[in-house]
Design goal:
heterodimer, A: alpha/beta, Glutathione S-transferase Yfyf (Class Pi), Chain A, domain 2, Rossmann fold, 3 domains, four-stranded parallel β-sheet, 23 helices, 8 strands, 6% strand, B: mainly alpha, Fumarate Reductase Cytochrome B subunit, 11 helices, 75% helix
């Protein structure tokens, strides 16, 4: 077992300790259903109405879903996953609701419990279904609303419930807090990597994640090296460093807002101009694309992924990368929230190519790539482990088909999921981080 | 006399009522969706090419991405074949053109009856095949609602009665013509309440999907 596998098991054990996995008491069934419906109705606007009214029930989206593909279980068809939302829309909001209501059953507590499996264990919100729909329905956003409805009913998987409560109340995730950040930074300092903390006058703020800190602290070190080498005036804040947003993952919009607001408020207070998000897919999405909407105002600073930062620094001549001279090949795992949902498809490949790597594409790739199986909190759910592993096998075979020397990704959660799968299957392909690869190849 | 009365009804008040319900229903449904409005996206867009991204999606969603083609080839091809066959039958049959001329005041060239008969038969056969697929395919069976089945039947009826009237089978021509018109009127009445509305919703949906992903720098 290598060092990374040990770290994987350490995090797995920490997550396991979050049990008991029992439903929290407190709300009556009626109140849970009412809350879910209110959450649905809050998010249903004209766009969603068009989406719901356009769906033909053709079922093509199933053919894009990795969970359906690997199980052939029709319940995992994306269109089925948002069925509850459609029912509430037709009963309460549709212009034809007076006609639909008698023929459309209301949602029940049993429905919410059943759909919890579909939208948490069997959906990572990867949005591949959005790419296949001939009607252009934004399917993943509809499924997302179902997740939020179940979250509002306080019926999310108990493990996520514990994690989002911890983040909301204690500003830590599985015990990783500002103190742990300081400890990891101290270790990095011993290795010669400087990470400025609470630096006055900084204009750039770096975010990392619990996954990076617990398993891949070298990713944080690599980000630090890149920022310093590029001459950024940057810092980290122990009370606002966490890019992971468990409220988002758990479908709890209130908890999501608390986590987002911590970052936004700190950046505003310190006059930060650029927030750089380390290697995380959902952390990037929650701040870059959802952050302003979550706090209800335009953000007075830029949010960039470390990928964008590297590319800009290359373009400005602030960092130069050494070319590989051994003809090494890599394949790239697109984190769904960076690529298909984030627009960073070509950029990481260009960075890898600029280092002389032979970048080999999986089939399919880029916009149509498959999720690693562990996105959007899926990787911490015990109830989804079998499904997750099936999707991992699908990805693994695609990676193997490229015959590349290694797989590179830019998301710690994806990397974690690959390590867990590799550990179970004794898969030998090296799994690398993009920032670590860049940091190792920076010219003096 | 009774048959003539049925035909008179179908040509007269039946058609008028059906058209009114169709127009008002469609309008009600579109305005109803617009009334819900959209939530303003406050994020800083990577691209601001609304129209280009929206129109691109309207176009590109007409064919599946290469990565998906193998898996949905039947639905892709049958969908196109069904719509083309339907529109050929509806728009290029000489009596239909006369009917449209009486409403719109202008006409266009028609196609030979053999082609119309063929396209009508193809449309009917494909719709029946799609109905069977909906019943047999596990995903489609699970996700189908009563609307899906009624809509297929309601669209099948004008096709079947039209073919029967054309071929002079099933009863007197006037009777079959009246039944054909009534079937069309049933479809018009059902239209705004059903999934048939997708004809009006598809392009707005594709457009908004194109702009949503376009803002993020993804060509969707």
């Amino acid at each position: 077992m290598n060092v990374e596998s040990t770290s994987v098991h350490e995090l797995e054990a920490a997550i396991e300790n979050l049990e008991p996995t029992v439903e929290r008491l407190g709300l009556s069934d009626e109140e849970r259903v009412a809350r879910a419906k209110r959450a649905f109705l809050r998010k249903l606007d004209g766009r969603k109405a068009v989406d719901l009214d356009t769906c033909l029930h053709c079922g093509m989206c199933a053919e894009a879903c990795p969970f359906y593909e690997t199980t052939q279980d029709e319940r995992y068809a994306p269109v089925h996953k948002y069925r509850l939302l459609r029912r509430v829309y037709r009963r309460q909001l549709s212009p034809m609701r007076f006609l639909y209501r008698p023929f459309t059953p209301d949602i029940t507590i049993d429905d919410l419990r059943e759909w919890r499996h579909y939208v948490f264990d069997a959906c990572t919100g990867c949005a591949r279904c959005d790419m296949i729909c001939p009607m252009g329905v934004n399917i993943s956003s509809l499924i997302r609303i179902v997740r939020e409805g179940i979250g509002a009913a306080d019926l999310m998987p108990p493990r996520l419930q514990r994690m989002k409560d911890e983040q909301q109340q204690k500003n830590s995730i599985v015990g990783v807090d500002g103190q742990r950040l300081r400890q990891e930074i101290a270790k990095l300092n011993e290795q010669g990597v400087t990470v400025p903390i609470d630096k006055d006058g900084a204009d750039t703020m770096l975010l990392t994640t619990v996954t990076e800190l617990r398993m891949f602290p070298s990713q944080l070190g690599a980000c630090a090296s890149i920022l310093t080498k590029a001459g950024a005036n940057w810092t980290m804040y122990p009370d606002a460093f966490e890019a992971a947003n468990i409220g988002y993952v758990a479908g709890d919009t209130a908890a999501m807002r608390v986590a987002t607001k911590r970052i936004v408020d700190k950046a505003k207070e310190k006059g930060i101009k650029t927030v750089v998000v380390g290697e995380t897919g959902h952390g990037y999405q929650t701040l870059r694309w959802l952050g302003a909407n979550t706090v209800g105002e335009r953000l007075p600073f830029d949010v960039v992924s470390i990928i964008e930062f590297i590319q800009q620094a290359q373009a400005d001549g602030r960092i130069a990368l050494k070319k590989q001279d051994n003809g090494a090949s890599v394949t790239y795992l697109d984190p769904c929230r960076l690529s298909r949902k984030g627009g960073l498809i070509e950029q990481p490949r260009e960075i890898l190519k600029s280092m002389g790597f032979d970048v080999r594409e999986t089939e399919p790739t880029g916009r149509e790539n498959y999720c690693c199986g562990g996105g959007c909190g899926e990787y911490v759910l015990s109830t989804g482990s079998e499904l997750r592993h099936r999707v991992f096998e699908l990805k693994k075979n695609q990676f193997d088909d490229t015959e590349a020397d290694g797989v590179v990704t830019a998301c710690a959660s994806c990397r974690f999921n690959l390590h867990v799968g590799a550990d179970k299957t004794n898969w030998q392909m090296p799994i690398k981080s993009l920032v670590e690869t860049v940091a190792a190849n920076m010219a003096d | 006399m009774e048959n003539m009365t049925l035909l008179d009804f179908a040509r007269g008040p039946g058609l008028q009522w059906a058209l009114w319900i169709f127009c008002l229903g469609v309008l009600w449904r579109i305005v109803g969706a617009m009334y819900l409005l959209g939530t303003k996206d406050l994020s800083k867009f990577r691209r601001n090419h609304y129209i280009r991204d929206g129109l691109r999606a309207c176009l590109t969603r007409s064919t599946p991405a290469e990565a998906f083609e193998d898996k949905i080839r039947f639905q892709h091809i049958s969908g196109y074949a069904w719509h083309i066959a339907l529109f050929v039958s509806v728009l290029f049959f000489a009596p239909h053109i006369l009917f449209f001329e009486s409403i719109f005041g202008f006409s266009w060239p028609h196609l030979p009856n053999t082609i119309i008969l063929f396209s009508g038969a193809v449309a009917t056969a494909l719709l029946i095949a799609l109905l069977i697929r909906r019943v047999v395919h596990p995903v489609q069976r699970l996700i189908s609602t009563i609307d899906d089945y009624i809509s297929i039947v309601v669209v099948l009826l004008p096709l079947i009665t039209g073919l029967a009237a054309f071929a002079h089978i099933g009863g007197r021509y006037e009777t079959m013509l009246a039944l054909h018109l009534l079937a069309v009127e049933l479809m018009l009445i059902w239209y705004p309440f059903s999934k048939l509305m997708h004809a009006f919703m598809t392009f707005p949906s594709r457009y908004q999907s194109g702009t949503f992903f376009g803002h993020r720098g993804v060509k969707a």
